Amino acid sequence: MTSLAPQPLSPLDGRYRSAVGELGEHLSEAGLNRARVQVEVEWLIAQTDRRFFGSSPLSAEQQARLRSIVTEFGQADIDELAGLEATTRHDVKAVEYYVRRSLELLGLDDIAELTHFACTSEDINNLSYAITVRDAVREVWLPKIRDVIDALAALAVEHRDAAMLSRTHGQPATPTTMGKELAVFAHRLGRIAAQIEANEYLGKFSGATGTFSAHVVAAPDVAWPEVSREFVESLGLMWNPLTTQIESHDWQAELYAKVSHANRVLHNLATDIWTYISLGYFRQIPTAGATGSSTMPHKVNPIRFENAEANLELSSAVLDSLASTLVTSRMQRDLTDSSAQRNIGVGFGHSLLALDNIQRGLGEIDLDPDVLAADLDGNWEVLGEAIQTVIRAEVVAGRSTITDPYALLKGLTRGKRVGAADLAAFIEGLEIGDAAKRRLLALTPGGYTGIASELVDRLG
Ligand SMILES: O=C(O)C[C@H](Nc1ncnc2c1ncn2[C@@H]1O[C@H](COP(=O)(O)O)[C@@H](O)[C@H]1O)C(=O)O
After folding, report:
1. How far, in Å, CA of 189 to CA of 343, rounded?
2. Which of 18, 321, 364, 408 has its CA 20 to 30 A from that of 155?
């Protein structure tokens, strides 16, 4: 048999590449290496700007040329780094050699020894992860979830007044509107997205065990913590002053817990829409040429929502695992974080894929008002709550002497099918005020939605 290898093992890099490829800009091996080069280059510029060890500030042109190795980082550089790592067997050392070679090519060999100066690998790695994860979240994941929230909000407004039977415990319950139910999800996801937007991205830059030992022995008079803080902040990150060799990764645990939370709410949305489709509330718009079932030609399956469900579970499994493992490291460091962090893109990739499917799925469903109306019309007993509540108010107001209205309505409706005529006859016979009676007689299941429609208007 002909060998098929090498092939991508992950579907994110195979069939789903087009949906999640944008994340690779940041959360791939190449994205990480480019950020590592950026941190090394910026550290060189920061040191020369401060004239460390008699060095001179680089000219604007020299700085621009140095920074261009970051902005023009491409396949040739990826390959060169792979070649260097094959020798060093140390990924960050390979980056250091790559930067040194770039300095040579730029005629800046005199500052070569400032490359990676006083740094441990984690000084470069933690800043690179903070940069790449921040950019992936802000430039890719958050815009996508905002697209989904916008699509949900638009559907909520569209179906603002579409009365729908509720189901609590799967049983017919006080009606609502489809718009209000979709608005609940938009509201929940909006809150979580705002929390994710506000997540902190911390960075440490303090040497082999977080003590600035090498820094101080090389230059005792420099205010190293201040230099470190300024450098970390210059990368748009928040300075972490107190760590072991590694950044403590608490910001990552916080972020992944929030994204995982968003995943679970999205999962709830996906399974609810799936259920509404199954009830016939939503029709799926068939795509020309597409097949639902390989054997049952009539079918249009809710595959967008089922794909999302599975990928949200996978994403949360990865992100929960990262959030859990990253906050522990034996004594001053072990390398488990390094191995685990290589899967950050997997966690975000499955979530992004699910968001893409939900977004597409939301664009392929049509509400069927006739099914909603028929379901409401078949469940007049849900008005039992309305009637017993009005009777209570009438009793308190002195217009009725009915004792235990709840029991009265329970006797009429519990576990029974009650039609419009039954209820009308029951209401006619009630000892309550005329206005209340008229209000109850005018009520239908579809009209018993409270202020569900107006609640949709509360969406920002
Ligand atoms: O500044 C340092 O390097 C400090 C050093 N600890 C290390 N810190 C960061 N990276 C390290 C460390 N050790 C190994 N490596 C490199 O990690 C890579 C692990 O490769 P893989 O198992 O493929 O994920 C692979 O490239 C390894 O070479 C220490 O001893 O404290």
Report:
1. 24
2. 18
